[in-house]
Amino acid sequence: MKIGTIDLGKRPVVLAPMEDVTDMGFRLMCKQMGASMVYSEFVSADALIRSVNKSLQKLSIHEDERPVAIQIYGRDVASMVEAARIVEEAHPDVLDINFGCPVKRVAGKGAGAGMLQNIPLLLEITKAVVDAVKIPVTVKTRLGWDDSHKVIVELAEQLQDCGIQALTIHGRTRAQMYTGEADWSLIGKVKENSRMRIPIIGNGDVTTPERAKECFDKYGVDAVMVGRASFGRPWVFKEMRHYLDTNELLDNLTFDYKMDVLRSQVIQSVERIDEYRGILHIRRHLAATPLFKGLSNFRETRIRMLRAETVDELFSIFDEIKKNWGE
Fold it and tell me: Which residues pair with 141 in a beta bridge?
């Protein structure tokens, strides 16, 4: 699969853009684990134009994470074009436009998935951004605003006509947020459309190697995107890559190996920010990781782990976990 001239190989698995999750450290880790491409946290066009430091920091790229996409969102043509030009100066491989974020503070103001209520403006922004930069422009969106307005089959053609070079579709409407099951049937219909020439990336509930393969086989997508399934589990890319390449499950990732990966996540988070905020940042991964599910008598240890405030305290608990539950 190619986005422009960027070759992602056969059946690529990519890391989804996620706010407060896909910082450079996590992107690098997922890349090392086999992610074919990684996406930044989404960046506000307005914040970039105002030179808000936190947003400008999201434009930082490490050479080892390439190919990497930087994603922006906004609600008017002028600010999106200006932000796109700012992003281009950071030299990402791809510029992605977010027309899919469902959260109220974004969609409620007309940006992200809110754009699905104003398709003419969505298309105007897309065309203007494509024309404003030389790097490949892609879009990530949803099936539509709600069950009564699932517009993705027609919208995909319209976006292609705007000049985008790949389209990612999350198989839910904005009204669904992240509830219910992702509907891949409409993603499949987009891919079946003989007028579609650009790659289609499917997103939503890709949580296991078997499901990743099923999405390729059943719906014909060019790539799959993994989001929440990577929380506290960056090795999911290694598992998926192995299964897609060999049709066999990877069974040699031990409990201790995965604990060491979590330890590495803590270290990179603390080094990137500082000890206190770095640990706060990583708690989302520690709380979500499937590694500890099913461990007997783990509740008290889990509470202490999620309350730890220093690296020494947290790693002491990790050592205890490896001793009591490890292999």
Answer: 99, 169
Task: Kindly list the catalytic residues.
Answer: 101
Are the CB atoms for 17 and 37 separated by under 8 Å?
Answer: no
Amino acid at 198: I
Query: What percent of the chain lies above the pLDDT cut of 70?
Result: 100
* 3-state DSSP percent of the chain in helix, strand and coil, to 5: 50, 15, 35
Nearest to 18 by CA among 7, 30, 9: 30
Q: Which two tokens stand for residue 308?
A: 């730890």
Residue 174 and residue 142 in contact, taking contact as beta carbons nearer than 8 Å: yes
- Convert the pLDDT of each residue in 250-259 to its tens digit: 988 999 999 9
Q: Both tokens of residue 247?
A: 């049709």
Q: Locate 124 and state its tokens.
A: 């105007």
Query: CA dihedral in degrees (225, 145, 47, 281; nearest 10)?
Result: -50
Contacts of 44 (CB under 8 A, 6+ apart): 52, 55, 72, 73, 74
